[in-house]
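Readers of this paper often ask what the protein records in our data store actually look like. Such a record has a labelled line for the sequence and another for the backbone structure tokens. Nothing more is needed to write down the fold, since each code stands for a local backbone conformation. The remainder of this section carries one protein's record, kept here as part of the documentation.
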Amino acid sequence: MTVDKHTLAILSIVGCSLDVLGTLYLAYDLLGGEHGPLRTLTRGVTYGLLFGTGYGLGLGVVFGLATGAAHGITLAWEYSRASKQKPKPGFWHDTAMSAIRGGGFGLGSAYLYGATFGATFGVLSTVGQVIAYRAGLRPTIDYRPATRPRLTIHQFLGTVNRTVGYGVAGYISAVVAQQRWSAMAVGVKDGLLIGAVTAVAITCTPFIEWMADHTPEKRMGVIGVGLILCGFALQSVQYWLALVDAA
């Protein structure tokens, strides 16, 4: 039995990334402690893993990586601002956040369904999110950290809107890409998956936000050591496989 070289490459990249993250956690004090960027980084990693895993399970590793990275970057920034009670950002900020997430959806879907589908889906995603922002349906709506999960009525309505919107976007993208035979199936699958992942994530958000602001400094160091060990283990997989002639 042999392991595909692309799989080994992904494992090595993930391992290196975990080593870097672990080092940053160990350098908590050097990065400014409580007032440094590490709390934002914690949010980015957590949301990236949450969305990336959910989307990846439904639509594959590449889609999960693209959308997970986009969601991690944008949500970390937005929730960090909300936690510091900064004023609501303007149109161009909302557009930038929407475009980054739309780009993640576009890249992931282009890998699955082709460039035309991906470009259309990315543009529709961006436009839809900008409209939702203008209507007040932003990720930080009803922001309130808590020690347990919570889903408010506004968040529920936002999830329903996201489910329907991405379902329609998937259908239109398939039609534009001349994939009419699968348009309905793609639209339903994309809409339900994105809606389900959003529902789980938004329900967990209060607890994630509470953890991001209340994790003790010593625990940050423990997390750092754990990440480095996991990264080392993943990077060593290729060498262990070489020893048993499986690479």
User: Anything to note?
Assistant: The mean pLDDT is 85. The CA atoms of residues 59 and 92 lie 30 Å apart. DSSP finds eight helices and no strands in the chain. The helical segments are 5-26, 38-59, 61-83, 91-113, 115-134, 153-176, 183-214, 217-243.
